[in-house]
Amino acid sequence: MINFPPRGLIADLVTPLDEEGRPDREVLVRIMGRLKTEVRGFLAGSVIAGEGLGLGLEARLEVLAASSKACAEGQVLIFEVTGSTEEETISLLSRAGTMMEKQGQRPEVLYLLTPLVYHGNRDLPDHIRELGRLSRQPLILSNNPDLVRTLRAKPRRKNIRTSVLKKLAANEQITGLEFDGDLTRALNYQRALKSRTGFRFYDGNEQSFLEKPSSSGLISCGANILPQAWADIVDSSLNVFDSRRMSPDHLSRIWQSGQAVRSLIELYKPNPPAVLKAALKLMGVIPRAAVTPGVEEPGSDRIQALETGLKTLRLI
Amino acid sequence: MVIKQAKEVLRIEAEGILNLIDRIGREFADAVDLIYKAEGRVIVTGIGKSGIVGRKIVATLNSTGTPAIFLHPVEAMHGDLGIVTGGDIVLALSNSGETPELNAIMPPIRSLGTKIIALTGDLSSRLAGYADLALDVGVAREACPMGLAPTASTTAMLAMGDALAVTLINRRAFNPSDFKRLHPGGNLGERLSIQVREVMITGRRVPTVDKQALMSEAIKVMNKSSLGVILVVSPKKKLEGIFTDGDLRRCLVKSGDFQALSMGEVMTADPLTITADRLAADALEIMQAHEVTVLPITDESRTLKGMIHLHDLLGKGKFRFNQVKSTYD
């Protein structure tokens, strides 16, 4: 049996930009290098932290090229292929598939898709099956009602319907789900997916994971700045290495990690890419905190609060 | 808020168990079969909270007719692995399946030819790889913030342990009288709080001979009493020795003409005794400590007053110590 997709912490990477506003490959590789010992995999070019929709097709492919080369042995790369429209999604997936084929499919790449950004629940299983013809690589679906609400004017449904998910579960190419939503829906979804052994149900909401952690793991943008704290919390939540619990300082260490990540979530949650990049700049990891057009830059009061928070955590 | 949170915890834990139902299949049936057919015991092992769950599974298995013991993985690495034999079944518990201390003892256990059943939340883990059978006890999510304490996962593990124990009950046709046999505690306390004099055998029911009696005569007396033992006394009823079924077997092996031997030659001199005013509980403690099933009762001058048998303390039945030895073997 293969541990794939992996359980554990997946870092939702920010996309550093150069002076011309294009993805800065070198800095992206640096960010990944800083995280690689703590995470099981990376999510690159995501719609939220990775500013996927603001980058454009070619820039997103550049992110894929750079991140796939920087991915360490044994780590997976998840690349978000969600476009603003069905056509954009098909185009990106098709080009990404061709690029990875040329690269010999190394590392193992999975594609992340938030279908309700551009598609309804109706005929969703057929649509995903169609996408599967463009690439045989595994797919991870994302259910994110807040994102759908932000990107679509008056969407009929913001969540994948449980009955639709049950049909989607029959598609073996779908190997995981990134979930953001309430506990009732989470439990309903997991019931719908119970026939799928090895299916990963990642939490996409860091706060939800802190309260009631999914046993598959977490896709976390906060890991960009606090990789070790998040790794500790995820390992603890997944009961990895039960014996560590017997260490007297285990609980206090996890508790402190929890306090640290909570203090920063509040700061970056309203605008993850801009605030995370600002934090990384303050920490000296990236040279500039530029964001794509349409992403609001954080105000001076937020930057000040961020600086105070990072100083408290001795990150700067 | 408190009530809402409590309900959420219970929902998560309940869902964890409910989701196990669909995962019960061929592997579970094979695991039951493996334990049922095992010549040895079930050795349950795990560390941390899994270890605590393991101890409860041991208790459940033992009280429902499946001999089981707990083995701490760290103690195993320091010599306790010696209790594992090829005929045993090892039930290894780890939610992650990646517990280093547990995985470290799997290869030596496998090398003994011992079958391993893993209870793990990750079938792709190393532990599952070591196991002959891996039962999936994974849960969707935990109910405790940051995994400070495993919750739904340990509940699921415990429930799977119960499922194994209960299906074994049916497989073994374990009935209420078997249960009673293994749970004598209910009326045992009452029985052990009385004095030895109230339960001891006295008078002609106590099989006795003198030192000069030949073995042939002693065997006749032993057969008549059906207690598997005979006491050797002087003409003044002073206790001089004891002769048991085990002694008889050894005589058979050692001497061809054993019937001509006298009791003085073959008896065990100065046997363990107890006085009649002591509590039955004390008698049981002596029997357990020395692994004997009979105690002669004497006064301070070693004059024989009677005899007490384990059956008189625990009720006539099939009670046995874990490691049974014949009387005074």
Structure, explained:
The complex is a heterodimer of chains A (316) and B (329). Chain A has helices at residues 25-35, 52-55, 57-70, 86-102, 124-134, 145-151, 162-168, 183-192, 206-211, 227-237, 250-268, 272-282, 300-312; strands at residues 8-12, 41-44, 76-80, 109-113, 139-143, 174-179, 200-203, 217-220. Chain A has 316 residues and is α/β, with parallel strands linked by helices. In chain A, helix 12 packs across helix 13. Chain A is globular, with a radius of gyration of 19 Å. Chain A starts with 7 loop residues before the first strand and ends with a helix. In chain B, a hairpin with a 5-residue loop joins strand 10 and strand 11. Chain B is built from 15 helices and eleven strands. The longest helix of chain B is centred in the first third of the chain and has 20 residues, at 2-21. In chain B, helix 1 crosses helix 8 (152-171), helix 2 (26-37) crosses helix 8 (152-171) and helix 3 (49-63) packs parallel to helix 8. Chain B is elongated and about 80 Å long. With 329 residues, chain B is α/β, with parallel strands linked by helices. The interface between A and B is large, with 38 and 40 residues.
Overall mean confidence score, pLDDT of chain A: 92
Structural class of chain B: alpha/beta
> How much strand of chain B?
15-25%
The count of strands of chain A amounts to 8
Name the helicity range of chain A: 40-55%
Integer-rounded radius of gyration of chain A: 19 Å
Largest sheet of chain B: 5 strands, parallel
| Gyration radius of chain B, in Å | 26 Å
Spans of chain A of at least 5 consecutive residues whose pLDDT stays below 50 are none
Mean pLDDT of chain B: 86
Structural class of chain A: alpha/beta
Order of helices and strands of chain B: HHEHEHEHHEHEHHHEHEEHHEHEEH
Shape of chain A: globular
Share of β-strand residues of chain A: 5-15%
Low-confidence stretches of chain B: 316-329
Number of distinct helices of chain B: 15
Query: What series of H and E elements makes up the topology of chain A?
Result: EHEHHEHEHEHHEHEHEHHHH
Largest beta-sheet details of chain A: 8 strands, parallel
